[in-house]
Amino acid sequence: MKRSNRLVVLTNFFLENPRKHIQLSYFVSLCSTTKSSISEDLDIIHAVFESQGLGLLHRTTGAGGGVSYIPENAEEHSDQFIRALCDKLADPERILPGGYLYMSDLLGDPKTVREIGRVFASKFAKLDIDAVVTVATKGIPLAYAVASFLGVPVIIARRDPKVTEGSSVSINYVSGSSRKIQTMVLPKRSLKEGTNVCIIDDFMKAGGTITGITNLLAEFNAEVKAIGVFAEADDDDEERKVESYTSLVKISSVDLNRKIIEIVPGNLN
Amino acid sequence: MKRSNRLVVLTNFFLENPRKHIQLSYFVSLCSTTKSSISEDLDIIHAVFESQGLGLLHRTTGAGGGVSYIPENAEEHSDQFIRALCDKLADPERILPGGYLYMSDLLGDPKTVREIGRVFASKFAKLDIDAVVTVATKGIPLAYAVASFLGVPVIIARRDPKVTEGSSVSINYVSGSSRKIQTMVLPKRSLKEGTNVCIIDDFMKAGGTITGITNLLAEFNAEVKAIGVFAEADDDDEERKVESYTSLVKISSVDLNRKIIEIVPGNLN
Q1: pLDDT, tens digit, for every residue of B12-43?
Q2: Which member of A133, A238, B125, B188 has the greatest number of CB atoms within 10 A?
Q3: How far apart are CA A219 and CA A196, in angstroms?
Q4: Which residues in chain A are closer than 8 Å to B155, comparing Cβ atoms?
Q5: At what angle do helices A35-51 and A3-16 cross, to 10 degrees?
Q6: Which residue in the set B11, B154, B165 is minimally distant from A8, CB to CB?
Q7: Please, where are the H alpha helices in chain B?
């Protein structure tokens, strides 16, 4: 296989298999070429990925040495993407009765969802995460997007147990904004003891749902390494229950009468 | 930018932007090169994509001419992938009380979900689909995977209306297997009149849910171009309500006593 063909094959392979550690010998036989040619190919791909803000190829040497693709958004890409999201969300047409914002169109666009996943995965790249946990239903697409860049599975907590998921562990918790008691369940076989997880959800106000998941995960001895929410809203009446989290956008205020929405970049540090 | 660098940049661009029509002049300025160089690059990428079973680059000439990437799985890839899925699903450890099969681990793996999406998107590639519709919650990841390859948005019908989605249209329907009356809602602003859609779900027995979505979509004058379900189960007691559909795997029988599951490739034609 010629270099030009190899570059297309290898680029596709890395993009489809983030964080998967591959020995160079795999590529040598895949492309019927020499180790030194593959090594030069990897240098080219690494340089382009870095210059385009797509991440990098991480090389290890020695016995069992190889390469893995670490997708990491350049910070200016993330900032630019988030500012564009804020502009879209500030459209007064989005205001719904009760002061809610219609966001289903944005969260229904696979490309936007994928970019959101890329931003979170870049933030959480060094945290050694084994699984992404979310609660049904609006966080699900975001959780898959994050998980695909981290190369880990998604585990979904639900409001009701499902007969197709076998026995489950459930907890009751108090929803922050509605002050109602809610239930959340996780199938027993979904999570091994001692897993490192990140929690992803679409929206956080007082943080009751996130606290609920955290408590449920404690039943599995899972360690919550990071929490990511797409949008957070200020909640003056409540003290926020969750302290350490990453949010992409923050809904500062929704003025129903004057139809003005104030959206700013969230808590990315 | 040198050819080797351009090939990495362009391959990444096409994989991230399936079915998006791009004029060559865009790439000419992106890569600071000539139209003829870009044209040669596209020939190389097209040849590799075809030989690897990843799809093809579709070129159009004349004013407004350009190129778009059409992801299409080679049929033998799809067949191989589906046979491997059948083997995994036939593991007797998956049997749950009531004769259900545990599939959440497979559907929680982003790479498996993406491959399932690729198979459906390849099947539906020529149908001119504008949106993918699913019903919460288990079909959601599959719907996003299909939509990302078709380059279209996802629209989610729910069991209950959500305050964050505004006014909605709802229907009641009879679930085939449980004979219970269920409700399904779709936000009013989620779907324009006359949209061409495909329906994606994880599981179909008698087909009540699919029939429910179809009826709900009729309220929006949407045209259902295709129906794709991951797994179908034989239902001896019921006549199937849905006639034309694509399924990846078929659960022929689950023998609870002898712990034998019979899974075969589904209805791919």
Answers
A1: 999 999 999 999 999 999 999 999 999 999 99
A2: A133
A3: 13
A4: 108
A5: 60
A6: B11
A7: 3-16, 24-30, 35-51, 75-89, 104-107, 110-123, 140-150, 208-218
